[in-house]
């Protein structure tokens, strides 16, 4: 493998290069033949694209000779199984930003944050104000533990942002070991003990005694919290308690800095042009792909398609593989606990193909009824679409077993990993998943970037869903030839900085012991279940034995939205509503609930605060 010359990257970025190559077969910096072919495709100089990797676009005509699939352009639109090419306005957000006038100025936090150097109290993010000084940018990996942590002292001075409270400490964040921490009991407002449950910060047992998992491996929630600036702000005069991780996770400074450094020193479009910047950006992008493959246990980066997120990944499968492989009378099995993103695309596909979406019922405790599932599987089943973890009940279904059973009937299995990836290790090969989808923003990475894993034979036999640059090898009005997967499915300019942020997030996460994170979260969930059970009138939905730290609940006599609003007044962010899982709520006779969702940086003290606030609401 050749290593491309990558000379100009700032430390946060150069440190990320080469990540994710532990098990990946492709050199991220020098994409393999298959990846390289489309890496210099459409818009590149003639003759630079490698025509050695056959692109297979079923239903689009066979490629004579050269290996790439050749499609008479005139015939493209009318080919069976070929999804209509979306118009410019209906693409993945193509027209949305300009269609929302004033969006940028309506996001004061974002605007403010991009102006690092100008913000009082903030030191410049490497690569933003000192683009020229790329060689002198400190490498965050080499930051001594006791020194000032770059980026942490750069926490935005929220007091300057309209509507945001000032962060209590204005100076440099103290050394890691001495961070006074909103996360410690000392700064968390004293919460009345929940009857029968000693407050985590008040009892004789230390947090680590109660949560030994916090000390296992190289992980503790405090370590994670130190990296996440937003967790140190105030909301409504109280330290933020972020319990809305199911909706999105907060971002570590490593991610924020990597994105800023990309735009500050490395921004370029990828896969085209011969200049250094394009090569560097391409190397980062492909390093991101390799890191995702590594993270999911995928055999090769070529099985990873970048998408906007889980929703787009599922729609991609529905509109490509689904249209080609699901027909009249076929069944798509979808458990009742699925997110709307894993229901509606299948309903749309079924309506189009005259197939059926068959709900797989739940047991009272929120588990998928495995007997009913086995009964519903048949030779008509083309696909099973199942979450690796439920966003409302927390249930972690036995996906490997369900997949093995589905495969006996020749059905494919799509796993929605949106809620799983941040909580426990994933191995798509062990699951034998045919498709696996996730969103970066639920994994401490930016919004607008996610990934779809698909088995190579599925990618190789699936038609693209969008046409444009990057996904072709050559275009003429006589014939168009296509790039191989994964680029075949990545038409247009991707979310390059999002991939950089995702790469940084995976790197950050991999600095902790993933098993230790899972163990800690299991203990934190058990603790949360215990303290919430002591709140009169509180009913948690779902009690599956295997679950993630998602607690949807109702509070007798109180509207869920009113509960969420009352919690917000105390700085506690939870979500209320149907959580895009209306069938799951209907299973409990509900159309709305409150949801607290935990992540690795949440603490027992925060759980205490939630319970104490709920008690107050209940007594009000
Ligand atoms: C289980 C599950 N699937 C899919 C989605 C959709 O994710 P996104 O909106 O990032 O595409 C979510 C989001 O909450 C989810 O929880």
From TrEMBL:
The keyword Transferase applies. Signal peptide: none annotated. This is cysteine desulfurase. GO terms for biological process: cysteine metabolic process. It comes from the Bacteria. It is an enzyme of class 2 (transferase). Coiled coil: none annotated. It comes from Streptomyces paromomycinus (Streptomyces rimosus subsp. paromomycinus). The lineage of its organism: Bacteria, Bacillati, Actinomycetota, Actinomycetes, Kitasatosporales. Its cofactor is pyridoxal 5'-phosphate. Its EC number is 2.8.1.7.
